[in-house]
Write a structure and sequence with these properties.
By secondary structure, the chain is mainly β. It has 2 helices and 27 strands.
């Protein structure tokens, strides 16, 4: 009796792998381990460099999946909102933007398709924590007498937000933390000083204690002073004397004013322009008559004159006070 053999035939789709490294978690891991990148990561092809050059707006999404080792795998398939199904990248050089749930955006990233080799460790992506990153808690162990004996490895974080005078988020602005000029500080801490504001204007910079044991008593860096460079296009500035607490979530709030404008009969007055005597910029009252006005981060304390100007040119002034890192309420305007 003849034996019938059934065979299955598979077609293998060529792919390439790209490594991703969580730079913050790497410092906290057992030596030799490479921690996996957290959350979803999206690779967006923004333009083709090779002829014929082309800008993709909206960008093409480069389809990827992650294997058990944490590598990103690609076949060259892309998708776009206006296209049905998938398209494969034509051979050539491209630029990508890498967005993720927990890390700062990487842009631009050079991509050549098809790649010269399946995996090139020199092209591993280094992911730096973003505003939504789940930083570990910081804690100190003490003995029965209350003396510190060990510091659990944790994070020191500085967060902030950046808005236009009218309250709109300022995305993709480079932010740089300038740490203390101290050899002892540099030897002890790994600082992640650079970031860009995200689409909502939020930003975060962080550092980790590389030498948690033993902890000096008293710790010379329980409190320390840094400065922050805000690299706004056309208007870069530095925020000096930012106080930091070791192992805590620190914040640098944007100084501002808020208030409301009403008609003579008390009804909310939308569309009124708000300006101040301190620097340029303007805000406009919302449908409920409320308004916000934001200054540069670290704006110094001092008096300010606020002017509300109605669409017909009628205006009114009010005196107020700027309080650094706070939002001050201005008396209501009646026009």
């Amino acid at each position: 009796m003849a034996v019938v053999r059934t065979y299955e035939q598979f077609t293998h789709t060529p792919s390439f792998a790209l490594g991703g490294i969580d730079s913050f978690a790497l410092l906290r891991s057992t030596k030799g381990q490479i921690p996996r990148v957290l959350g979803e990561v999206r690779f967006l092809v923004t333009r083709r460099i090779s002829p014929p050059a082309q800008v993709y707006d909206p960008p093409l999404e480069l389809i990827n999946w992650t294997n058990r080792s944490g590598f990103f795998l690609f076949t060259g398939a892309t998708s776009a909102p206006e296209l049905s199904g998938f398209r494969t990248l034509a051979a050539g050089n491209y630029e990508c933007r890498v967005e993720s749930d927990y890390y700062q955006t990487l842009d631009p990233i050079a991509v050549t398709w098809p790649p010269a080799q399946v995996y090139d460790p020199a092209k591993d992506l280094i992911f730096v924590p973003g505003p939504n990153y789940p930083f570990p808690d910081f804690s100190v162990l003490t003995d029965k007498n209350g003396r510190r004996i060990q510091r659990k490895l944790g994070a020191t974080v500085l967060r902030g937000s950046l808005f236009t005078p009218g309250g709109q988020p300022q995305p993709y602005v480079p932010i740089t933390l300038v740490p203390p000029v101290s050899p002892a500080f540099a030897n002890r801490f790994q600082v992640f000083p650079n970031c860009n504001t995200d689409a909502n204007g939020n930003w975060v910079v962080s550092m980790i204690d590389k030498q948690p044991n033993p902890v000096p008593v008293p710790d010379p860096f329980d409190q320390f002073i840094v400065s922050v460079d805000i690299n706004l296009p056309g208007n870069p500035y530095n925020v000096a004397n930012v106080q930091m607490m070791l192992g805590e979530e620190n914040s640098l709030r944007q100084t501002g004013l808020r208030g409301s404008v009403v008609h003579a009969n008390g009804r909310p007055f939308p569309g009124v322009k708000i300006t101040t005597s301190v620097g340029p910029g303007e805000s406009v009252t919302r449908s409920d008559g409320q308004w916000f006005f934001y200054f540069n981060l670290g704006q110094a304390n001092g008096p300010v004159t606020v002017t509300a100007t109605a669409p017909d040119g009628q205006n009114s002034n009010a005196l107020s006070q700027i309080v650094r890192d706070a939002i001050t309420v201005v008396p209501t305007f009646a026009l």
